[in-house]
Specification:
Blueprint: H1 3-16, E1 23-27, E2 34-36, H2 37-51, H3 61-70, H4 75-78, H5 86-89, H6 92-104, H7 109-124, H8 128-147, H9 151-155, H10 160-166, H11 175-191
Antiparallel strand pairs: 1-2
Helix pairs in contact: 2-3, 2-8, 3-7, 3-8, 7-8, 8-11
């Protein structure tokens, strides 16, 4: 038994527990509190299992779910950057890249490389799996925002132009899910003024 390998794996797993303390800006569907990064990743992973049939291309579901489960773990060190925080986005890539270097180095080298490749793949949005995962990363908060009567959108004064810029690649992973989210989650909130014209 390779105790050193196992020790490093458990060190990484224990470090991941900190993801439960990273609050996002999106509220739970009932609007009572904000979700955390771990809840967001779990919800997206289940969404991938349920909705994978709507991917524009055939996807490896295990690869997609794996990518989803680690896509935000770097925020343990880098912090969450809100989707509409233009100032925070300026150094987001640098913060998250440095965090990925630090976090994935806790693992045995072979696993560290594998997880880092999955994280890079999600960020680059070039493969069918990463495109679909990114679609869900946009659809999931839209669904919750709609369910909570646009609470986070209202608090942050999200604009139509800002939201559409954020959603510009959502259709790359799934045309069907983008059209559904647009008609069911986004347009009603534009029409009622929750998402403001600007």
């Amino acid at each position: 038994m390779d105790d050193e390998r196992l020790e490093r794996q458990f060190e990484f797993l224990l470090e991941l527990d900190k993801e439960k303390n990273i609050d996002r800006q999106t509220y739970l569907a009932d609007g009572k509190r904000k979700e955390n990064d771990a809840e967001h990743a779990w919800h997206m992973a289940v969404m991938a299992l349920v909705l994978s049939e709507y991917s524009n291309e055939n996807i490896d579901i295990l690869r997609t779910v794996s990518m989803i489960l680690i896509h935000d773990v770097v925020e343990i060190y880098a912090g969450d950057t809100y989707a509409y925080d233009e100032e925070g986005k300026k150094d987001q890539k640098e913060r998250e890249t440095n965090a990925a270097d630090r976090l994935f180095s806790l693992l045995p080298e072979d696993q560290g490389v594998k997880f880092r490749q999955l994280w890079n793949e999600f960020e680059e949005r070039k493969t069918p799996e990463s495109k679909f995962a990114n679609t869900l990363d946009n659809v999931q908060p839209s669904m919750l925002n709609n369910a909570s009567e646009g609470r986070s959108w209202k608090e942050h004064k999200v604009t139509v132009s800002g939201l559409m810029k954020r959603q510009s690649y959502t259709c790359e992973g799934s045309e069907k899910l983008w059209k559904y989210a647009l008609s069911r989650f986004i347009m009603p909130n534009i029409e009622n003024g929750t998402i403001i014209e600007k």
